[in-house]
Each structure stands twice: as C-alpha cells, then as structure tokens.
C-alpha cells in the first residue's frame, strides 16, 4: 500500500477527512490551517474532486474548522445513532463538503 493509500481512502475522486488535536493546541487556528493545506494538496496533487467531513452539532470547534476551510454544510441528521466504545450514542450529525 502506498503512503497516499495509508492516509486516504480514495473512491472515484472522493474522500472523507477528520482530525483530532491535543488541547494544548486548541484556539490557535492550527487545525484550520492544517486542514486547508490538506484540502489544497488533495485537490491539486491527488486529483480528489470532493472532500467530506462529519461531526456532532455539539462539536463547535470541529464544524468551525470546516466552515473556515470553505466547506459547506450539506446535511444534518437528527437523532443519528452510533456506537462509541461499545455504547450506543445519539446525536445530531453534521456533514460538510467541499468540491474542487
């Protein structure tokens, strides 16, 4: 598997990205800056045409990163069910997208 395939699951020009950051680096704009560069690289070097990302509506920091990176909210799923560490959780799931 190439390094590119290790990082991204690319299907027909589409991929999904996500992120996590240590609290020490929160509120400095680092994540938005990093995600902008990843998006630029994906569009220009990997021939990606569409990138999506999701988060809970309570994760303001994450959806603000998406908005700062010119991603558009395309969907909000109310009462979305997921399994986290073996426990079912219910939340409103936001889906954002950018096309290049």
Short key terms for the protein model shown above:
alpha+beta, Aminopeptidase, 3 helices, 4 strands, acyltransferase activity, transferring groups other than amino-acyl groups, N-acetyltransferase, Acyl_CoA_acyltransferase, GNAT family N-acetyltransferase
Question: How are the SSEs ordered, and which strands pair?
Answer:
Blueprint: H1 3-7, E1 14-16, H2 30-45, E2 50-56, H3 60-68, E3 72-84, E4 87-99
Parallel strand pairs: 1-2
Antiparallel strand pairs: 2-4, 3-4
Structure description:
Helices cover 30% and strands 36% of the residues. It has 100 residues and is an alpha+beta fold. The chain has a single domain (3-99), classed as Gcn5-related N-acetyltransferase (GNAT) (Aminopeptidase, 3-Layer(aba) Sandwich), CATH 3.40.630.30. The chain has a four-stranded mixed sheet with strand order 1-2-4-3, with helices on one face. Strand 1 (14-16), helix 2 and strand 2 form a beta-alpha-beta unit. Helix 2 (30-45) packs across helix 3. The protein is globular, with a radius of gyration of 14 Å. Residues 15-72 form the N-acetyltransferase domain. It comes from Clostridium estertheticum. InterPro entries: Acyl_CoA_acyltransferase (IPR016181), GNAT_dom (IPR000182), N-acetyltransferase (IPR051531).
Major sheet: arrangement of strands:
1-2-4-3
State the helical fraction. 25-40%
Could you describe the largest sheet, including whether it forms a barrel? 4 strands, mixed
CATH superfamily: Gcn5-related N-acetyltransferase (GNAT)
Quaternary structure annotation: single chain
Q: N-to-C terminal Cα separation, in Å?
A: 25 Å
- Average pLDDT number: 90
